[in-house]
Amino acid sequence: MEYKDQVDGIILLTTFPCGPDSLVNEIVLRKIDMPIINIIIDELNSETGLETRLESFVDILASKEG
């Protein structure tokens, strides 16, 4: 069984837009063919913006099921 049969989407969480995790995230974004959201967290992000992005991602996943 492939991972695509078990996973609907991927959430990548990065603490700042630089560093090793951002490089790994970029590789994943280029190699994996499925819905992916890249969330970058820093001290300037608001919870409302994060909630909106996650809700939109869930809507994208739901639309792919139907």
In whole angstroms, the N-to-C terminal distance is 21 Å
Major β-sheet strand ordering = 1-2
Question: What is the alpha-carbon Rg in Å?
Answer: 13 Å
Strand content: 15-25%
SSE ordering: EHEH
Unreliable parts: none
What is the number of helical segments per DSSP (H or I, 4+ residues)? Answer: 2
Q: Any idea what the shape is? A: flat
The chain-level structural class is: alpha+beta
Q: Main beta sheet: strand number and arrangement? A: 2 strands, parallel
Outline the structure in words:
With 66 residues, the protein is an alpha+beta fold. It contains two helices and two strands, in the order E-H-E-H. Helix 1 links the parallel strand 1 and strand 2. The mean pLDDT is 83.
Primary descriptors:
66 residues, alpha+beta, two-stranded parallel ribbon, 2 helices, 2 strands, 47% helix, 15% strand, flat
Short overview:
It contains 2 helices and 2 strands; from the N terminus they run βαβα. By secondary structure, it is an alpha+beta fold.
Topology:
Blueprint: E1 10-14, H1 20-31, E2 36-40, H2 47-65
Parallel strand pairs: 1-2
